[in-house]
Design goal:
single chain; 356 residues; alpha/beta; 2 domains; 7-stranded mixed sheet; binds NADP nicotinamide-adenine-dinucleotide phosphate; binds zinc ion
Amino acid sequence: MINAHSYAAYDPKSPLKSWDFQRRDVGDDDVQIDILYCGVCHSDLHFARSEWMPVTYPQVVGHEIIGKVVAAGKNVSKHKVGDLVGVGCIVDSCRHCESCKEDLENYCLEGMQGTYMGVEKQTGQRTQGGYSTVIVVDEHYVLRIPKELDPAKAGPLLCAGITLYSPLRHWHAGPGKTVGIVGLGGLGHMGVKLAHAMGAKVVLFTTSPDKVADGKKLGADDVIISKNEEEMARYAGKLDLIVNTVSVSHNLDPFINLLKLDGTMVLVGAPATPHPSPQVFPMLMRRRSLAGSGIGGIKETQEMLDFCAENNVMPEVEMTSIQDINQAWDRVVKSDVKYRFVIDMATLKTEKPAAS
Ligand code: NAP
Ligand code: ZN
Ligand code: ZN
């Protein structure tokens, strides 16, 4: 077994604290990754705080992992020792269902195994995430990080990036299309950048007036304060696609009214409590759709990383030490991050192992 040092949740409410645990040994298909950086996703908070479902503690979260391969099993061919690699939200899936065969491991019909929120089939143990020094992952679920991408900033692509890239591609964002992004947080700011890079006209909807100038800088052609009805009315019936990243339950009707005939709003935000049910008439009178989308498969995640390298699309990050992670989480809850925290794992490695 391999010793890992981490910051873990011990219950839904207390601050994260040091925890030492063990990773499985490197199997024939596995790589061992020395973790250099890990992004902070709002899902980390929802999950660690048992907002989605009751969690067994201690629990380590983090699924925007960048690191170096330090060991590889004998069957490994995709990666080698010394490579810069990434691990996103998926560490396993059944590999034989219809979805897995189509490279849609994120929609595995037997259930994908999350980097956290999953079970390791090799050990039967709950998976533990990236706020830790080391991880062991089957090479299939490990991404190649193109050399053009700054390793300190690339982590958020592995969840926030792919979660926006996948629906933007699936619903054909591109030249001639007007795309709305709701919420300028970790996911939303990647949505603005990616939709802009794909050639769409981008309209950002935010509740935060102080983010208007940033929204434009990041690539939005227009920014609307979503609580202002007059501003919202300017886009009534004008959008082909909306990707809604908001992390709390809210009224969807004002956004559905912005869709064109046959337009779609895709929900990617995953609030702890359900949204109120939208009204039916505005949907049926314009054949509008309401959809959902969850991260993306491994192949598409690699495609997204290559797209970002080619188009110079990078997350805006604020670096934090692991020791300041609890203050960072407080700021995530207040929507006060510009626009994704990344933990510098060097700050974890210099800590002594937790007293047992
Ligand atoms: P985040 O950085 O906290 O961003 C969420 C944004 O929502 C905020 O920046 C804010 O934008 C808006 N918001 C927050 N509170 C609000 C309120 N009371 N009313 C209206 N808007 C509010 O979170 P994130 O990491 O981007 O994640 C967003 C959500 O997506 C989370 O629920 C997360 O669990 C989920 N998620 C889903 C997937 C998936 O596969 N579908 C993947 C990753 C994350 P403004 O300040 O601009 O209004
Ligand atoms: Zn995430
Ligand atoms: Zn499957």
